[in-house]
Amino acid sequence: MPLKTSRAQLLRGLNEAIRKVGAQSVLISDLVATRVGLNSTDLECLDVLYLAGATTAGTLSKHTGLTTGATTAVIDRLQRAGFVRRGRDASDRRCVLVNVVPSGAERIKPLYALLAARMAHLNKRYDERELAVIVDYLSRALDVGAEHVAWLQTQPLRARRRATKRPRAVSTGTPQRRSVAAAERR
Question: What are phi and psi of 79, to 5 degrees?
């Protein structure tokens, strides 16, 4: 009879899996972004826009946690690259909406096609009840993450540490011994 996995073990495994999925997502995003001429922040903002539909820069800023200035810069870059366009809201002419350009999205889709197919295959392993639990959990986890982003925005910026130059030690001995000593210091 197999040993029962404890709640603590399951939670540890879940936490580790979430962290790995997050890291892997960042790495995939960076690779895709590079292949379409964007940086990963711009690609992720494009995905948020794609999922949200036409939205304002202010709403995008709230969803991403970026400042309004940074969000405007992202939209400017995405527009120059042909991925989004700005347009007036038909119901409120004062409001500018950002829309994903369909041809821009089509440039990215092939880079995710294999992953999407493999995920569809994986999803077949779960019934509707299990999928509902997964969707519920991930939706709640996203809410927790959004709350954390809001909290992080209230935290002071930490100054980056400047690399300090170590004083060079006076080397004695043969050139070979000096190069070994230098390599050990690195």
Answer: -70, -45
Alpha helices in the chain (DSSP H): 7-35, 40-52, 57-64, 68-80, 102-123, 128-153, 175-185
Rounded distance between C-alpha atoms, residue 65 and residue 147, angstroms: 10
Side chain identity, residue 43: L
* pLDDT reported for residue 149: 83
Write the pLDDT tens digit of every residue in 47-62: 999 999 999 999 999 8
Number of domain units in the chain: 1
The residue range of the domain holding 137 is: 7-152
Question: Residue 113 sits in a domain of what CATH number?
Answer: 1.10.10.10
0.85 cut: is pTM over it? no
Rounded to 5°, angle at Cα 52 from 137 and 138: 5
The pLDDT value given to residue 171: 45
Residue type, 158: R
Residue 41 has pLDDT above 60, yes or no: yes
Alpha-carbon span 102 to 88, nearest angstrom: 18
Please report whether residue 113 resides in a domain: yes
Distance between start and end Cα atoms, the chain = 52
Quick check: 181 and 169 in contact, CB under 8 A?
Answer: yes
